[in-house]
Amino acid sequence: MAKKALGKTARMPSVKRALTKARQGKAAQVKAPPKRAKKRDLADAKAEAGVTPPMSAAQIEEAFRRFQAAEPEPKTELKYVNPFTLLVAVVLSAQATDAGVNKATPALFAMADTPEKMAALGEDRIRDLVKTIGLFRTKAKNVAALAHILVEQHGGQVPRSREALGALPGVGRKTANVVLNTAFGEETFAVDTHIFRVGNRTGMATGKNPLEVEAKLEKVVPGPYRRHAHHWLILHGRYTCVARKPLCERCIIADLCQWPGKTVL
């Protein structure tokens, strides 16, 4: 089946040129400032309702082609040494920043980098080591409990199924998807607040909740880009398509984005 043409709003002479302009803050012409914030807020409200016009299949493929050119091997910003420590780090990162988690986990992982060691460490000691992280009491309880379960039910190994991971304390669908993707190379999409925003704003994958956005991404992300798509979208939302005052002038997919609130022409 022939691919749908990009259309005049999506044409770009080269990925290299797009990346260069983005780094210079000249990815697109900036709009006049009056009423921009109000319009952006209204556009965001519509985006959160999942009503942004959809990107075409060709536009989505071009977007990921540019993401790959800019960052061929994107990585999680959480520090970990093995699948177990990744799992713990992701559990600790709920409603917390990766930077904040990374300040606490080196000491924790130096003492316990396996389920056996973490179970032996105990909830009280875990709590002391992660007390700088939000919701640390609940998280320490969950980490201690999941360590015991991994030892008793999984032979001290992190399971490689979403169902088994989701049965662990403190592990939801998003956490399971992160572990499956990052630790085991599965083509999963962990829809956090950043991916939810980017998917809805750009029109790449609209939905009223994370599960709807995940289902859309499953359908629209081209095969060659599925392995790293979740990291590209998280990083894009974290550093460019930010919640307040998005850096549209530095966005490498500004001409593909369908969001009416973007700050560039």
Describe this entry's structure for a reader:
The protein has 2 domains: 15-74 and 189-250, Endonuclease Iii, domain 2 (Orthogonal Bundle); 83-184, Endonuclease III, domain 1. The protein is built from 13 helices and no strands. The radius of gyration is 20 Å and the shape is elongated. It has 265 residues and is an all-alpha fold. 41% of the residues are buried. The longest helix is centred in the middle third of the chain and has 18 residues, at 136-153.
The CATH homologous superfamily of the largest domain corresponds to: Helix-hairpin-Helix base-excision DNA repair enzymes (C-terminal)
Based on secondary structure, the structural category is mainly alpha
Largest sheet: none
**Please, how many domains?**
2
Helices and strands in order:
Elements: H1 15-23, H2 36-48, H3 57-70, H4 83-92, H5 98-111, H6 115-121, H7 123-129, H8 136-153, H9 162-166, H10 173-184, H11 193-202, H12 210-220, H13 229-239
